[in-house]
Write a structure and sequence with these properties.
The chain has helices at about 25-40, 50-75, 80-100, 105-115, 125-140, 145-175, 195-205, 215-225, 230-240, 260-275, 280-285, 295-325, 340-350, 355-360, 365-380, 465-485, 505-510, 515-520, 535-545, 550-570, 580-590, 605-610, 620-635, 640-655, 665-670, 680-685, and strands at about 180, 210-215, 380-385, 395-400, 405-415, 425-430, 430-435, 440, 440-450, 455, 460. With about 700 residues, the chain is an alpha+beta fold. It is built from 26 helices and 11 strands.
């Protein structure tokens, strides 16, 4: 066995053995091996075939990709100064290699030769798609550029990777830096007991008296949602809205962590890349590999959705303002009042609170219910498994069908210091198969929920809000897309090769089951009594499902339009600032205008550090697909259990199993029997005409 655990690909990652000291030697070794393979592939070949040309490149992607994926993952979930330094030292080398590969004229020529050869037609559809994608990606990677422009293109990629990483690090450092100590419990009136207990435990751990809050979501958001103390709500809102910005006066390294210039730099680099490739803007580059065909099409889609949602949003806001004024004594509704007033209005209108519902979602019941639903839908079994992990709270599972291993996944549920915020699925290993061996896929499923509280020395089960349950189902949708594939080729198995604006279909599809009584009755048990969720409370939740859906839709459209316009028609050379563009979009489409100090874009990691640049619209685009796909199950349910089982089998075969081996629209049409319609989304959102 290799003494460097990052170079051991014989089984599962050896997280119990990997340290920051292994990173540089492993990456240097793999890069040297990869370059040696590339040199062999550059040599003249009598015939270019899949076996002698594409397969060796798959092996490069497999080994270097898996090792760097481990480093990247650890950097996101157990950030330390030493690991961060190792990551930042090696990221430029990895970026440089992939940029070189993407610009290699000889390899590009051989791909085109294979694509034009008689043998191409005899390749499997999955292999043909991989070759087609490779030719496209070579063009997007600058392979057709003259040498001087190739050099500049490569420099852009390296600088972009470094600045994007710095953007994320600044957000994480600011998040970890901020601590709000509240000394008197009376200042926390309205806050749930479990939130106060977690804050008390955080203060105790820090050797302080009182209650300590942070900018991790499970800590700060309950203040906005439940705290009666308006000044406290404003304090935590202001901190969260100004992290990593020029407005962040409460942070210890405000100037060092300010992402304002990083945003400008990233936009400039992306625009320059687009110009080099012959595109008018980066939005056009982004859409080459997506379902949407042009920025204008995306903007039309978003503006149409905004137009449909606006009357509902105006009604939502008018009701909220009236309630806040008449019932809460808030004459002028501010941004830090909106979650609080919304929660109070929902409690009044539907006679239940999010905190009441939370008592019925202990972690073990939620996980069991989620697994039960997956097992019923897709005829699989999920079992606890064993593997080295990076933190004591991480668990590892396996998925089997008919006793055969299908895939495995790590589950890392709780927020903690050194862990990036949000929730995500990432692939630890992709599926590939040949006549001798099947490599099963492995996924990382990561969330940031509140860890189990300790009361009188006893650990209590973690309790999830219904929103957190939805988040968990969402990420598992991504995981199932990755793990239930039957495609044998690494480049298009699972989520690989799936158009970015379709990749959210399986995740958003799974969210729908969080509203089904038949699902919820098997995944709820009151934290104290053990009683399942009462049907009467479920009915209230269902009635409140589309509470403020107009405002929520407008908010997502606003974010999507900001992203698209920043990458489509924003020009810093005109003197317009990013903030001014944002203000302009809000003036046209938003109903709730944030305060002038708000700098949410400075922590908008999706588009500045997460791969969603000119792609944030994908959430709403894919929601059209997912709502329409779920409507097929609604139709089947009316016909009986056999029809529902058949729908699940068809969804597995036509959507999940095929991964990226064919265009997403083909997969959707094969499942639904027609192209997607927006009608189901509007109906599910309570915005049908």
């Amino acid at each position: 066995m290799n003494t460097n655990p990052l170079l051991d690909f014989s089984g599962l990652p050896r997280f119990d053995a990997i340290t920051h000291e292994h990173v540089t030697p492993a990456i240097d070794t793999l890069l040297a091996q990869a370059r040696a393979t590339v040199a062999q592939l550059e040599a003249p070949m009598e015939v270019v075939s899949w076996e002698n040309f594409v397969a060796p490149q798959d092996q490069i992607a497999e080994t270097l990709g898996r090792a760097w994926s481990i480093v990247n993952h650890l950097n996101s979930v157990v950030d330390t100064p030493e690991l961060r330094a190792a990551y930042n030292a090696n990221q430029p080398k990895v970026t440089e290699f992939w940029t070189e590969l993407g610009q290699n004229d000889i390899l590009f020529g051989k791909y085109k030769q294979l694509q034009a050869s008689p043998a191409f037609a005899s390749l499997s559809p999955a292999r043909r798609r991989i070759v087609d994608n490779a030719v496209r990606d070579f063009r997007l990677g600058g392979a057709e550029l003259p040498e001087d422009k190739k050099e500049r293109f490569g420099a852009i990629q390296e600088e972009h990777a470094a600045v994007s990483t710095r953007f994320s690090e600044n957000v994480l450092d600011a998040t970890n830096d901020y601590k709000l100590l509240v000394e008197k419990e009376s200042d926390l009136a309205g806050l749930p007991d479990d939130v106060k207990a977690a804050a008390r435990a955080a203060a105790d751990k820090a050797g302080k008296q009182g209650y300590e809050f942070s900018l991790h979501f499970p800590s700060y958001y309950p203040i906005l949602q439940f705290a009666d103390n308006r000044a406290l709500r404003e304090t935590i809102y202001r901190a969260n809205a100004t992290k990593a910005s020029d407005q962040g006066d409460v942070f210890s390294k405000k100037d060092e962590w300010d992402n304002t210039q990083n945003i400008v730099t990233l936009l400039r680099l992306r625009n320059e890349e687009a110009q080099l490739l012959g595109y008018a803007n980066f939005a056009e580059v982004s859409l080459v590999s997506k379902m949407a065909t042009s920025p204008a099409q995306v903007i039309t889609f978003l503006e149409d959705l905004a137009k449909r949602a606006r009357p509902f949003a105006e009604k939502d806001l008018a009701e909220l303002k009236q309630f806040a004024r008449e019932e809460l004594g808030i004459a002028e509704l501010q941004a830090w009042d909106v979650p609080y007033a919304s929660e109070k209005l929902q409690e009044r209108r539907y006679a239940f609170s999010a905190q009441e519902v939370k008592q019925y979602f202990p972690e073990h019941k939620v996980i069991d219910g989620l697994f039960r639903q997956i097992q019923n839908l897709f005829n699989v079994e999920i079992k606890l498994d064993a593997a080295p992990v990076w933190h004591k709270d991480v668990r590892f599972y396996r998925i089997e069908r008919d006793g055969q291993l299908v895939g495995q996944f790590y589950l890392d549920l709780y927020a903690r210091a050194g862990k990036s915020g949000g929730a995500w699925m990432d692939d630890a290993r992709g599926r590939r198969a040949d006549a001798q061996h099947v490599q099963t896929p492995i996924a990382y499923l990561t969330c940031n929920f509140t860890e189990p509280a300790v009361v009188d020395g006893q650990a209590q089960p973690a309790l999830f809000t219904h929103d957190e349950v939805i988040t968990l189902f969402h990420e598992f949708g991504h995981g199932l897309h990755h793990m239930l594939t039957v495609v044998d080729e690494l480049g298009v198995s699972g989520i690989a090769g799936v158009e970015w604006d379709a990749v959210e279909l399986p995740s958003q599809f799974m969210e729908n089951f969080c509203w089904e009584w038949e699902v919820l009755e098997h995944m709820t048990a009151h934290a104290v009594t053990g009683a399942p969720l009462p049907r009467a409370l479920y009915d209230k939740m269902l009635a409140a499902k589309n509470f403020q859906s107009g405002l929520q839709t407008l908010r997502q459209v606003e974010f999507s339009l900001l992203d698209m316009h920043l990458h489509y028609d924003y020009d810093a050379g005109t003197g317009q600032s990013v903030q001014q563009l944002i203000d302009g979009v809000r003036a046209k489409f938003a109903l709730i205008i944030p305060p002038a100090f708000n700098r949410f874009q400075n922590s908008f990691g999706h588009i500045f550090a997460g791969g969603y640049a000119a792609g944030y619209y994908s959430y709403k685009w894919a929601e059209v697909l997912s709502a329409d796909a779920y409507a097929a199950f609604e139709e089947a349910r009316a016909l009986g259990p056999a029809a529902t089982t058949a729908a699940g089998k068809r969804y597995l075969q036509e959507i999940l199993s095929v991964g990226g081996s064919r265009p997403a629209l083909e997969s959707f049409t094969a499942f639904r029997g027609r192209e997607p319609s927006i009608d189901a989304l509007l109906r599910h959102s309570g915005m049908a005409a």
